[in-house]
Amino acid sequence: MRGPAFLESLEAAVPGGVVGTNLEAIDPWVEVAPQAIAEVSRWLHDAPETAFDSLQCITAVDWFEPDPKKAAKAGWEPHVELVYHLWSTRARVSLVLKTKLPRWKDGQPGQCPEIPSVVGVWRTADWHEREVFDLSGVQFVGHPDLRRILCPEDWEGYPLRKDYEMPLEYHGIRGR
Amino acid sequence: MSQVIDDDPRIIEFDVRTDEMLVNMGPQHPSTHGVLRLVLRTDGEVVSEIEPHIGYLHRCAEKIGENISARQFIPYTDRMDYLAAMNMNLGWSLAVEKLMRHQVTEKARHLRVLISELSRIASHLVGMGAYGLDLGTFSPFLYAFREREKILDLFEEACGARLTYSYITVGGLTADLPPGWLARCEDFLNQFEPVIREYHTLLTTNAIFVKRTASIGVLSPELAINYGCSGPVLRGSGVDQDMRRDGESIYTAMYDGYAFEVAVMKDGHYPRDHVYPAVPHDAVLGDCWHRFFVRMLEVVQSMDLVRQAIDRYSACKGPLGEPVKVAEKIPVGDVYLETECPKGQMGFYLVGNGTAIPWRVRARSSSFSNLSVLAELCHGCLIADVPAIVGSLDIVMGEIDR
Question: Which of B62, B218, B346, B356 lies in disulfide reach of B327, CB 3.0 to 4.6 Å?
Answer without folding.
Answer: B356
